[in-house]
Amino acid sequence: MKKTLSVIVIAKNEEKNLPECLKRLKFAGEIILIDNNSTDRTHWVAKKFNARIYNYAGMDFSKMRILGARLGSFNWLLYIDADERVTAELAKEIKEKLIRPPQKAAPAAYSLIRRNFYFRRSWPAGENIIRLIKKDALIGWSGPVHESPRINGTVSRLKNPLLHYTHNDLFDMVEKTNLWSETEADLRYKKNHPEVVWWRFYRVMLTAFFNYFIRQNGFRAGAIGLVESLFQAFSIFITYAKLWERQISPKAKIA
Fold this sequence. Notes:
Blueprint (H helix, E strand, L loop, with lengths): L4 E7 L6 H5 L7 E6 L6 H7 L3 E4 L5 H11 L4 E6 L2 E3 L1 H11 L10 E10 L2 E2 L4 E8 L3 E5 L5 E4 L3 E3 L4 E5 L3 H21 L7 H18 L7 H26 L7
Parallel strand pairs: 1-2, 1-4, 2-3, 6-11, 6-12
Antiparallel strand pairs: 4-8, 5-12, 6-7, 6-8, 9-10
Helix pairs in contact: 5-7, 6-7
């Protein structure tokens, strides 16, 4: 099994999350860490777990995931983020899938359900993501952020969830929003997004709030559901405010 699977972890300033993440990946043949210009002890933590470390400058996550695939030594690739956790049950299921004898109609990739935790509490709705991919079936990744893989072949599904511990406190939430909104605004500006007029702010904020509070059943999570849903509305507001700033101010425009 260890000679079958490469795990690829992308991290930036994740010294707090990495130990718990990496210690759950010992079942793999290798861990490849793509370090996105960390300024904390991310590099040192990764070395403790014998990860192969490569530095990458820039905010294009598709390129980072493609780089990880190229560096992988084994037939299967498992993509994990630093704030995600592979449970013992999920690790066992992955091992069972990969040691099966080859079949003509064998899947080229596996999707799984990611269970999100906000403020360390489970969110009512999960999300389906493709993270376990046969290396020679991976065509590439699309999108600088919110990236998705392109697969040559069929995709099956794993039963056990991946745990995602995000938004653990408001300070980090606001800090990350300020960072990611820069990238999101730049992407929209490069694609010549229509002029941001006053009513667009209301539309994107209401859409975000409705998605989290109603469609994802955030109202079932009590105060946390309300806080998270309002924060998502705030986050998209910041993105569009920065886009608006780029559109009206030459000094704010990207190079």
